[in-house]
């Protein structure tokens, strides 16, 4: 956020010079504003900030010598913003100096108990080294005061809060009616704590501090209705215009809780009050303001006509700002990225998110030609497109809170669009978050191309031509995608035993089925189904989206043999206690280890128990399978270790005797 655009005083530093920062004083006719006064001769020309170009080849080492030594100093770059919208802070080098390119920078310095220097603009003009000698003056107590006494009266009792932050802000303002300035204000003391800059604001002009205090009591607070620079009415107005809903064109009506700004013909605000009521028939605004009416200054009421060139006393009404108030719960948050008019259409993009209902898309209402309630035509759509940046800014919001819409409109010519987000909280309400002016021309006969991309498959439909504002039925032809096969290897380690083959292969097959079309290849755009209606007046490429299923063949595991050991199965670990036998389905290349249990009496294939494996064992096993009751060594005859002696064991014994096992 540019806190002091165009209006800040700029000191152009010429050559190597010694500067002393003396007391901070109030700018003329601006309540609460402060600016440093530079002392000494040849301190440089004072002129408004202008656009400057950076010369990256010219670097300057800037050193600041502070008195007192522990003064906090910050250098900011007005050409770059940080994630909070503030001027980016330039970190010092290890020796405490700053390495700066040629151009304009902002300088702040403060220490508790001293008068601060806030956001002074200065130039680096091409020299390679500069030194600034900085002295802050201690804050002096007012005459007759030690500086420690609390001389201001406490705030009046607050009303019961309803949860409607806008109405509560107005109620808080009315509860303070009659509060008078007496050697300071409680609102200034509160602002001193908010800023923590060491400056005592209890005796400063206090209309802006009062307005910020009221909104805080209603639950809004810092960076929601104001920033730390909001002690000045003009800074407060500029911040709300940039960050909140506002109207300086008098096309919408103010409501209770709005900040009403007054000022001069140059458009700079010099006073602010809280709107308490708006009478639509008379177009008069009722408001409560601090530091107004009577002597000493007090919290008082006032009314003024809402309209251009309307005066309250000697000040003109400039407009209003409205924070994103919530009627119970958190307020909906929204932003507009772009808006443009076309041939009988409007294209808009942006985002909206409601913290009370983060999983639900927010409805966007766009009024063409006038605000809500003016009779203007309304166009609705949901903010549910993919927007990763919203999740980044508001963790937990989710990824689908964007909108990117083109829609046909009946209006023509130059029109003002009014964007409202529909709050999903306890009391649903439209929240104005942006305005934009577009030019809508008469529709021409235009054509658009719809192309198809098989996205890894084949057989995409031929492209189609869409006529402007004429519905197009998408092709019903479906692309195909061939199966993908992958070979998986199972390596067998018999660990001292014998096995016919130590390598097995299985096929892993992935099959694809067409699911839908999408405007993004990764599927994060707008989905379309075959035969659906395409109504957007724009060229588009539709990418095939695929569903997949994967199956892997089973492999038959052999039974290894090892004299004196009993086979327990195959396992992925060498020292496992048990393993698998029979069939196995691998998911990837893997090595299986034979697991053994020592058994001195175990001789695979010794069916007759004579401690030899020969043809006699084959005869004994065949007779046993034929029904002969002759004694059979079943543990050794069960060659495949499936717990029973059958024809499969007979086949294994034949292979063993033939030397193929």
Describe this structure in words.
There is one protein chain. The protein is 11% helix and 40% strand. Strand 24 and strand 25 (429-440) form a beta hairpin. By secondary structure, the chain is mainly β. Mean pLDDT is 81; it is low at 1-53 and 142-149. Helix 1 crosses helix 3 (207-217) and helix 6 (615-625) runs antiparallel to helix 8 (647-658). The strands form eight sheets. Strands 1, 4, 5, 6, 7, 8, 9 and 10 form an eight-stranded mixed beta sheet that branches.
List keywords for this structure.
661 residues, mainly beta, eight-stranded mixed β-sheet, 8 helices, disordered N terminus
Which helices and strands, and how do they pair?
Blueprint: E1 9-12, E2 20-26, E3 34-39, E4 46-48, E5 55-67, E6 72-81, E7 87-90, E8 98-110, E9 117-124, E10 129-135, H1 165-175, H2 186-195, H3 207-217, H4 233-243, E11 245-247, E12 259-263, E13 269-279, E14 284-292, E15 298-305, E16 311-312, E17 315-322, E18 333-341, E19 345-353, E20 362-368, E21 377-383, E22 385-386, H5 388-393, E23 400-408, E24 413-423, E25 429-440, E26 447-453, E27 464-467, E28 472-473, E29 484-493, E30 503-518, E31 527-528, E32 533-534, E33 540-552, E34 555-557, E35 565-571, E36 582-584, E37 590-598, H6 615-625, H7 634-637, H8 647-658
Parallel strand pairs: 1-9, 5-10, 26-33, 29-37
Antiparallel strand pairs: 1-4, 2-3, 5-8, 6-7, 6-8, 8-9, 11-17, 12-13, 12-17, 13-14, 14-15, 16-17, 18-19, 19-23, 20-21, 20-24, 22-23, 24-25, 26-27, 28-32, 29-30, 30-31, 30-33, 34-36, 35-37
Helix pairs in contact: 1-3, 6-8
């Amino acid at each position: 956020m540019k806190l002091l655009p165009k209006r800040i005083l700029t000191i152009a530093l010429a050559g190597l010079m010694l500067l002393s920062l003396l007391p901070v004083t109030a700018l003329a006719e601006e309540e609460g504003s402060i600016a440093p006064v530079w002392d000494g001769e040849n301190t440089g020309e004072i002129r408004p900030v202008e656009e400057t170009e950076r010369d990256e080849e010219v670097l300057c080492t800037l050193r600041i010598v502070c008195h007192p030594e522990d003064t906090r100093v910050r250098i900011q770059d007005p050409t770059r913003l940080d994630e909070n919208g503030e001027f980016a802070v330039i970190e010092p080098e290890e020796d405490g100096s700053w390495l700066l390119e040629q151009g304009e920078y902002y300088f702040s310095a403060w220490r508790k108990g001293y008068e601060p220097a806030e956001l002074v603009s200065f130039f680096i003009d091409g020299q390679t080294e500069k030194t600034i000698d900085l002295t802050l003056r201690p804050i002096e107590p007012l005459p007759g005061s030690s500086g420690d006494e609390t001389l201001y009266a406490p705030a009046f009792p607050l009303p019961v809060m309803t949860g409607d932050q806008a109405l509560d802000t107005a109620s808080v303002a009315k509860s303070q009616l009659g509060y008078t300035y007496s050697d300071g204000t409680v609102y200034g003391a509160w602002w001193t704590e908010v800023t923590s800059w060491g400056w005592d604001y209890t005796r400063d002009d206090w209309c802006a501090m009062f307005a910020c205090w009221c909104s805080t009591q209603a639950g809004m607070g810092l960076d929601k209705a104001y920033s730390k620079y909001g002690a000045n009415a003009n800074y407060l107005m500029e911040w709300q215009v940039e960050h909140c809903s506002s109207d300086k064109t008098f096309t919408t009506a103010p409501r209770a809780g709005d900040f009403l700004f007054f000022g001069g013909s140059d458009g700079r605000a010099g006073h602010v009050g809280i709107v308490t009521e708006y009478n639509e028939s008379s177009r008069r605004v009722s408001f409560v303001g601090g530091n107004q009416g009577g002597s000493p200054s007090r919290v008082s009421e006032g009314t003024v006509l809402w309209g251009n060139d309307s005066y309250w006393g000697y000040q003109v009404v400039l407009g209003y700002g409205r924070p994103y108030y919530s009627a119970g719960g958190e307020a909906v948050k929204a932003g507009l990225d772009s808006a443009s008019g076309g041939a009988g259409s409007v294209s808009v993009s942006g985002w909206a998110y409601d913290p009370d209902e983060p999983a639900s898309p927010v409805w966007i209402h766009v009024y063409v030609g006038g605000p809500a309630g003016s009779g203007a035509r309304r166009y609705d759509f949901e903010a549910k497109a993919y927007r990763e940046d919203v999740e980044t800014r508001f963790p937990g919001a989710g990824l689908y809170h964007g909108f990117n819409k083109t829609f046909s409109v009946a209006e023509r010519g130059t029109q003002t669009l009014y964007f409202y987000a529909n709050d999903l909280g306890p009391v649903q309400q439209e929240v104005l978050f942006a305005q934009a002016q577009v030019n809508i021309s008469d529709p021409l006969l235009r054509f658009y191309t719809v192309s198809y991309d098989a996205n890894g498959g084949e057989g995409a439909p031929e492209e189609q031509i869409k006529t402007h504002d004429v519905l197009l039925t998408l092709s019903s032809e479906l692309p195909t995608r061939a199966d993908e096969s992958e070979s998986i290897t199972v390596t067998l380690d018999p660990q001292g035993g014998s096995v016919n083959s130590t390598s097995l292969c299985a096929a892993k097959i992935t099959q694809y089925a067409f699911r839908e079309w999408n405007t993004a290849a990764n599927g994060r755009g707008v989905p379309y189904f075959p035969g659906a209606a395409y109504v957007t007046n724009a060229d588009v490429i539709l990418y095939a989206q695929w569903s997949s299923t994967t199956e892997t063949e089973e492999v038959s595991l052999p039974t290894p043999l090892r004299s004196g050991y009993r086979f327990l199965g195959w396992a992925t670990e060498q020292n496992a206690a048990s393993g698998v036998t029979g069939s196995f389905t691998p998911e990837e290349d893997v090595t299986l280890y034979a697991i053994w249990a020592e058994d001195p009496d175990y001789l695979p294939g010794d069916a007759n128990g004579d401690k030899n494996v020969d043809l006699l064992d084959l005869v004994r096993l065949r007779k046993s399978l034929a029904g002969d009751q002759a004694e059979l060594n079943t543990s050794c005859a069960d060659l495949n270790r499936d717990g029973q002696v059958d024809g499969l064991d007979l086949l294994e014994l034949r292979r063993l005797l033939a030397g193929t096992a």
